[in-house]
Amino acid sequence: xxxxxxxxxxxxxxxxxxxxxxxxxxxxxxxxxxxxxxxxxxxxxxxxxxxxxxxxxxxxxxxxxxxxxxxxxxxxxxxxxxxxxxxxxxxxxxxxxxxxxxxxxxxxxxxxxxxxxxxxxxxxxxxxxxxxxxxxxxxxxxxxxxxxxxxxxxxxxxxxxxxxxxxxxxxxxxxxxxxxxxxxxxxxxxxxxxxxxxxxxxxxxxxxxxxxxxxxxxxxxxxxxxxxxxxxxxxxxxxxxxxxxxxxxxxxxxxxxxxxxxxxxxxxxxxxxxxxxxxxxxxxxxxxxxxxxxxxxxxxxxxxxxxxxxxxxxxxxxxxxxxxxxxxxxxxxxxxxxxxxxxxxxxxxxxxxxxxxx
Length: 358
What we know:
alpha+beta; Pnp Oxidase, Chain A; six-stranded antiparallel beta barrel
């Protein structure tokens, strides 16, 4: 019996060796050059097909998302008293600037301004019909971007409004021939006007230095070019490079937003309790809390900012306490969150204004 098993195993080993040798022979067999080229071509075609499929799928997804974004834009446009021609013009501006989220052009003055700047460069503003430029100015007002809320920083002189005061120095370098206060007399999309200070005629093409302080916001410094000097006014080119020095007084609005508060202890979150945000500004918040915290307390706030998503673990410091109402200031590098808060304040002011005038 044992001999039979040993013989069977030997036969199996012999058969395996013969099979292995046959495989090795087929592998070791030299492939012809034509066969290698065919194999490489097939593999290359397969890779190219996979790449094209992924590109097609990605483009299809992108187009579907963009289609949904435009439907959202059309839906939200119903809130504004814009004519069909005005809506078509706004769509044209959004398309020309390549916005992936066209709805952002009606939400953010900064997106609107940046999109418009690209549009003007592409269409050459100097050759655009005056009526079209006038319509764009009207769109600014309908969207609530003119006059601009103090919570939103200027990024272009096109956002200025009549009656705003400024300081001018002419020319921008060297000995000044004009220097002093001036007044914004008018703003158009292609140019704007200030009351000319006393002094000699200013040549077209002269670059001038200007400063404007907007109470509750900041001081802006920029340069502009004189296009014309006539009838007591200087006609200026628009500027989009504005240097901003921020002030610390902010517009404050009333809200009612639930908030989770974590009190920091030795660098870690200790006690957690719940309260309500009762007002907010670009610099901080006012909160009604169930406990009374000392000035200087460091907190982490988590809350839902309507229309802007969840704000998680926002660092703040208590700066003033009155009964159980705590005023807190933003702490650390939180520019993106601060921009969200400012944008929310602006949108709420705009909504309140629309309700008031409806």
